Automatic annotation (TrEMBL):
Parts of the chain that traverse the membrane: 61-78, 84-103
Keywords: Membrane, Transmembrane, Transmembrane helix
Name of the molecule in the record: Uncharacterized protein
Organism: Micromonospora globispora
Length: 107
């Protein structure tokens, strides 16, 4: 009787071991597949990045609003078209420096 139980236990353990091996291979295959998919999917950047990320939403709105007001003022108060265009280009070139001077947080 005990030899029969030992034989059945050995068969059960061998079956469990085969199932574990199959499950292990499936898990390894699934992990390899996930790694490949992870490698080829682009990574999404969360949050704000870039130059405008340094400023709050209100500061960015103020920058845009004041720039538009300045552009509107240039187009209203300056008559010569060449001078208008020169002032607009100058404003757009100087705008980053103005923003840094006005809103820099390092000081």
């Amino acid at each position: 009787m005990s030899k029969e139980r030992a034989r059945r236990r050995a068969a059960r353990e061998a079956q469990l071991e085969r199932e574990r091996a199959v499950r292990g291979r499936r898990m390894a295959r699934r992990e390899r597949r996930r790694a490949v998919v992870r490698r080829f999917t682009p990574k999404l950047r969360r949050g704000r990045t870039g130059r405008l990320a340094r400023h709050t939403r209100a500061e960015r709105a103020a920058i845009v609003l004041l720039t538009l007001v300045a552009l509107f003022g240039i187009w209203i108060f300056v008559d010569d078209l060449a001078l208008r265009l020169a002032l607009v280009v100058l404003l757009l070139l100087v705008l980053p420096a103005i923003v840094v001077i006005a809103l820099d947080r390092r000081t």
